[in-house]
Structures are given as C-alpha cells and as structure tokens.
C-alpha cells in the first residue's frame, strides 16, 4: 500500500530549491508515497501559555500530522543549523507533553544547498531531534544534496540533474521500505 507522508519544508522562499526537491520527490515516488507538503510558515511562535487553549492553526497542524504514516523533512541549513521556523513547527508538534504528534512516527531527512556540504549541519541537528522525539529515523541513504542550483531543475521546477534525481528516487523508495519494516515490526511486537 502507498504510505501517506507529511513533508515539512524548511524554506519559505518562493523559489526554494528545497521546495522544488520536495515537489520532485513527491512526483517521482507516487507509486510508493502519497506526499502532502504541510504548511508550517503560518504557525505562531510556540508559547507554552497557550497550551490549554492553542490557536486554531496549531490545532490544524497537529491534526494534519497525526494520521500520517511518516514524516519527511526537506530543508536547507541556516548558519549550520535548522531554520528557526522549522524548529518551531517541531516544538509545536511535540506538545502538550505526552501527546506529541512525532512519537513513533517514521522519519527521513533530506537537506539541500547550493554549497558543497549539502546542509550536513542541519541534517545532523535534525537527526538528534528525531532521536529525542522517538521517531524511527531512516539511516540510509543519507541525503546531503550539495551544489543544488536553479540549473538542477527544469522550468516546471522538476529535478533534471541525473545523479541528484537518482538519489531522490532512492530516498523515497527506501523510505517506503523503512515504513513497511516499522509497521511490520510493531505488529510483531503486539502479537
Ligand atoms: C544560508 N545558506 C547557507 N548554506 C549553507 O550551506 N550553510 C549554511 O549554514 C547557510 N546559512 C544560511 C543562513 C541564512 C539565513 C540563509 C538565508 C542562507 C544558503 C542557503 O543554503 C541557500 O540560500 C539555499 O538556497 C536556501 O535553501 P532554499 O531556500 O533555496 O530552499
């Protein structure tokens, strides 16, 4: 069966390479994944005072993520770390305590940048969050997409670069397999 995937993109920029990577991955891997890019740019700064009576956008965000089979992060790095609003979305989903939408949710990470380290810094910070949030994180293939530029895409925003495209397809395929494995393992533990 196709898995329903929430994609969280760590850039609000109109021509974001990460958004284009996310859209391309969704298009290339339709056979295995049913991807939905969840809007996180409109979330308010997380404020614990609002926990008892959260803003509607926060409730909507948590409700969107909760039923998903997995979460895919596609993000640039800002100053060697995770863009602030993406961290804010992760914090928002993690609360109230004991009701985290991330708990036990399979995850995968793709980072992309025009530079040569492909968002390695943000990628590894995100990995650490996933450990704490109890998200079974796909280990391989790692996806530090380096030297991604406008030339990597066609006019419709679809990835045309061969090796990059191959890696993105591999990531989607492996993630579907990873979710299968987690679901099957959980069933075994329950019986
Ligand atoms: C960057 N950029 C960047 N690149 C990188 O490889 N390592 C970094 O630490 C940073 N830091 C950083 C901070 C801030 C505030 C900005 C705006 C940019 C460059 C970044 O990779 C580039 O702008 C990408 O194009 C951003 O991704 P999107 O928006 O195209 O998806």
UniProtKB/TrEMBL annotation:
Q: Which domain of life is it from?
A: Bacteria
List required co-factors.
Answer: FMN
Organism, by scientific name, is: Luteibacter yeojuensis
* Molecular functions (GO terms): FMN binding; oxidoreductase activity
Q: Name one GO cellular component term.
A: cytosol
UniProt KW Flavoprotein keyword:
yes
The protein's name in its UniProt record = ACP phosphodiesterase
The UniProt keyword set, sorted, is: Flavoprotein, FMN
Annotated ranges, domain NADPH-dependent FMN reductase-like? 4-147
């Amino acid at each position: 069966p196709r898995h329903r995937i929430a994609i969280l993109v760590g850039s609000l920029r109109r021509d974001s390479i990460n958004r284009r990577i996310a859209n391309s991955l969704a298009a290339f891997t339709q056979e295995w994944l049913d991807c939905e890019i969840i809007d996180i740019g409109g979330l308010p700064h997380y404020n614990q005072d609002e926990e008892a009576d959260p803003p509607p956008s926060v409730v909507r965000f948590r409700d969107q993520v909760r039923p998903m089979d997995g979460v895919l992060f596609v993000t640039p790095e800002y100053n060697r770390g995770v863009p602030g609003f993406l961290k804010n979305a992760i914090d928002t989903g993690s609360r109230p305590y004991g009701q985290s939408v991330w708990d036990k949710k399979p995850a995968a990470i793709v980072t992309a940048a025009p530079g040569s380290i492909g968002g390695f810094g943000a990628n590894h910070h995100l990995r650490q969050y996933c450990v704490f949030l109890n998200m079974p994180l796909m280990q391989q293939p790692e996806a530090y997409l380096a030297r991604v530029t406008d030339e990597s895409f066609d006019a419709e925003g679809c990835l045309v670069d061969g090796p990059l495209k191959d890696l993105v397809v591999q990531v989607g395929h492996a993630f579907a397999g990873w979710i299968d494995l987690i679901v099957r393992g959980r069933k075994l533990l329950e019986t």
